[in-house]
Every structure is written in C-alpha cells, then in structure tokens.
Amino acid sequence: PRSTLFPYTTLFRSDQLTPNSPVYNIPSAVRLSGPLDVTAFEQALSEIVRRHESLRTTFVSTDGQLLQIISEAGTFTLPVVDLQELSEAEREAEAIRQARKEAQQPFDLAQGPLMRTRLLRLSQEEHIFVLVLHHTVSDGWSTGVFRRELSALYGAFSSGKPSPLPDLPIQYADFAVWQREWLQGETLEAQLSYWRDQLDDAPPILELPTDRPRPAVQTHRGAAQSLSLPTSLMDALKALSNDAGITLFMTLLTAFKVLLYRHTGQSDIVVGTPIANRNRVEIEDLIGFFVNTLIIRTDLSGNPSFLELLKRVRDVCLGAYDNQDLPFEKLVAEMSPERNMGHSPLFQVMFSLEGAGGDGLELPDITTSRLKLDNSTAKFDLSLAMKETADGLRASISYNTDLFDADTITRMLGHLQVLLEGIAVNTQQCVSDLPLLTESERHQLLVEWSGHISDYPRDKCAHHLFEACAEQRPDAVAVVFNGEKLTYGELNRRANQLAHHLQALGIGPEIPVAISVERSLEMVVGIMGVLKAGGTYVPMDPMYPGERLAFMIEDTQAPVLLTQERLLTVLPEQEIRVICLDRDWDLIAQESD
After folding, report:
1. Residues 6+ apart with CB under 8 A from 61
2. By the 8 A CB rule, do 240 and 423 touch?
3. φ, ψ (nearest 5 deg) of residue 580
4. Is the Cα torsion angle 533, 534, 535, 540 positive or negative in sign?
5. CA–CA separation, 525 vs 132, rounded Å?
6. Are strands 126-134 and 382-389 parallel, antiparallel or unpaired?
7. pTM score
8. Could you read off the pLDDT of 278-296 as tens digits, one per residue?
9. Rounded CA gap, 127 and 32, in Å?
10. Is the CB of residue 300 less than 8 Å from the CB of residue 257?
11. Hey, which end of the chain has fewer CB within 10 Å, N or C?
12. Range from 185-189, 372-376, 426-430 carrying the lowest mean pLDDT
C-alpha cells in the first residue's frame, strides 16, 4: 500500500458525523437477461478495479490530516448468490431484498473496500448485478465511466480478446495532489472572496412548511417520489431557454426557485447544486470523487416576471461557474456558520439536472434494464433531480421523512408540473401570478370546500348572529383550547365587557384595534369584543419581525393594542394604548356584561 494526502475532507467528515449510515452510498442494480459469461464479467470488474486506484482506496486520519491509502491490485472475486431453488415469486422478492440490503449497508472508510458487488442468479439466463460505491471514491459521472468500461471490457473478454481500453494517463491521487498545490495563495483567496460576497447575510435556513417539527439531530431518513413530464413540455421549455439565451438547467432551476418561494414566502432563496468539476481532459475518464457543490442564491424580491428572474439566476450561475473550484467544505469552514445538527450548513435544498446520455450498460447478447434501488436516505431536507429522457423530463424528489409526509411531496410534484406548464405558456407573468394548483386542488377549494351555501339574515353582522346563538344556547360550548372552554353565554358576556371598555377608550365605527395574541380563549374574546364595540380588528401575528409589527401599527394608526402580558417583551415600543387581556382582565370585568 502507498498513501497520499487527500485534498479536502468533505465526505470523510460528513461520514464521521453520521457513522454507520448509508447516506453516502451510491447504489445501482441492473437486470441482465441472456447467456451471461460470469467469468468474463468478473474479469471485467477485476480490470476496472486494477485500472482505477480510487476503487482500491481507504481513508485514515493521522495527526489531523486525511490520508488516502491505496492498496495494490489483488485478486477480485465477484460474489454470486444462487436463488434458483426458490419459487419464481420468492426469487424475485429475495433478489430485491438482498439488493436493498446491500444498498443500505454502511461502509467503513478506514477498512474498506469502498466498492461492493453482488451477482444474484435467478435462473441460468436471468441475473441481477448489484453495485454499491461510497461517495468518497465515486460520483455520478464516475458511475457512467464504470458502466462504459464494464461494457467494453466484458465485450472483449467474453470473445477472448484483450482489453480495448488505453492506459489511464493519471490517477485520482495525482489529481488530489495537483488540486492541493494549485488551490492556494491568490487563486484560493480570489474564489473565497467571491463566495464571501455572494453569501454575506444569507438566510441560515429555508423554512419550508413541514409536516412535523425539525428534530434536534438530522437523521437522514428518506424516501423518494417521481413524476414524468411529457416531451411536449420539455421541448417548450428548451425552446424558451434558447430564446432567452440560457440553458435548460437555468430555466428549471429558476422554476424550482419560484416553487420554493411560493411554498415558503421567503424571497431570499439559497439552493445547492452539484457540478461535475471535470474541466480537464485528463480526468474525464477517471473514477473518483470530483463533484463539487455550488450554492446558487437568488433574490426574488419585487415580484419580478419569470423572464426577469431567469436573468437574475443566469447571472448568479455564471459567477458560480467561474468560481467552481473551491471545495464546498473549504467554503463552509470559511463562512463559519453556526453549526446546527438539525440541518445541513449553508443550504438545505438541492437541485440537479441530468442530461440525456448513453451511459447504460451494453453487453453482447444480454438485455439490460436498470432497477429502481435506493438506500432510504436523504442527504438534505429536499432534493429535486430532473433528467432528460426520450419520453420527456423526469422529476424525482428525495425528501427527509422526519419532516415531510408522502402526500406533501405528491402535491409539490403536482405544483411543479402546473408551474412549468404556466411558464411554458407565458414567461412574462410575475412569479406570484404563475399557476400552482392542480385541477383537483382547484376543484377542492372552489367547489368541494365552497359548495355548501346556507342562507342567513343579510341585514345582520357576524357578532349579531353570534349573539342570537348565545341567547338560544347559552350553556352550549362555544370555544375549547388546551382543556379550557367557554360557553356561548360566557363568551358573550366577556366580549360585552371588553366592548364597553373599548368604547370608553373611544373605539367605534371605522376605528381599528390591533390584536397581537397567541392562540387562546383571549383571542376569540378580543375579536368579538372589538366587533361589538363597532371597531375593526387588525390581526398581528406575534411571530412577525418587530419591524413588521411596528409598520402595521403605524400604517393602520390603531389607537389600542390588545395583547397578552407574556408578549410585551417581543412587541415593538409604539405610541399606542396597550391592554393585556390576561393581566388587565380584573379591570375589564368591572364593565357591564
């Protein structure tokens, strides 16, 4: 074995933070139908391992430095699992079970090997080949290299010919040494300076509406869903991209940004995206961890048109491409974000686009088909991966199951399709006006949830109708919260007392009253009391930023603010009469009920 310094330690340190986790496994499974020459197949795999030192590499940390330990090429053995004794249904189920087990089995980076293979034999002419690589020795581009070489080598070895592949001019370790030596001094500082400016004051987290609170420690438990988009839509998006002078990647990324903006309400959207980082011909045919992560930050403020937003995204992308060599971990270390174990640093949502390519496995006399295989993990809160296919675009969302339910992701994929269809029709629409709801959601909102019409007295206000109910059923329960309750009679009496108190302070028709309270019985009393006094209530969420609350008070010129004592410390100091519905109730209760 020999060793060399590893340039940067992104995945190694991430692996240490999530020990015994398959989150950085890259699994794949291919069904092989036909007369497979297992000996030639094994020889082809052995030659790939011999050619690529990365597949014989392990990692150890010594004195604070990470070393690549590269072993000599030895005898490679392909494990073959014979399932022919099982029934046909059992064979298929057992093959899928074993493939998933391999995908979910963690690696030991220090012990290795960091490549696992297994051939599952279902019959003499039906096999499933399982390949699992750790991300420290491979990436998406590398798996394409692996498949191309396996195709070429098997084709040669199965017909008794020597390897047709030329020797590799360099190895991954050579690139690692070169990158460490090149990326320092002025070169390093120039790229660091760009990213410092780009990410200055960036929001630490994208607050997607989740189905459950974020756990204190990220678990990476995940699942995935996919959606096929028609060729006509892909062609339309390509056409508008050409007209705008940008790439399909930029158009789809911009659409994804709009989707996130509409779901979160945040106008400062930060998304990560992988970049192959194969910008030199010598490394194009190497298997190894070359991929880097770029951060694309977009300003959606001002409700721009989609075309205007597209220009903003293009400019940021071009700047990121010019500074793509800085390893993501160096950027994290430089920005020094406050490390929160509940989410990933700098960004929590990923986007990628895979172009149409011919990187499938092609073996003589063998029909191949890829099987869907994942390791039930999610590196981020949400990742949207899009792929060009002969049948159109395929959108796949992997998501953290601690945060999201499957139904939520299904709706999000539906929103994405509607959004892309709207963009293809009119790029001049403002981002807030682009369509989002599916037909079923529109029907639910406009018909199912709004189709039951009840007649009511048109000359009565809402609080008058409430008073009629209180007179008819004073002992019926009107409001329940956290085990407490108010009957119609109690609520009516309390609202009357508050209304008299407000009228004594000058509240009447056309006069607004600010209400900033947490969900509570007091909230309902406050609303009813304002209406009974003849005023208009202005709801102010106490979770809003102080500047927003101050603006609302100033803008409405409300003379009175209803709140709760525990919120006084978070509300802005303004020239306004403050009434605490809990602390001041003894005074309010002296009024007529």
Report:
1. 12, 67
2. yes
3. -90, 115
4. positive
5. 61
6. unpaired
7. 0.75
8. 888 889 999 999 999 999 9
9. 5
10. yes
11. N
12. 372-376
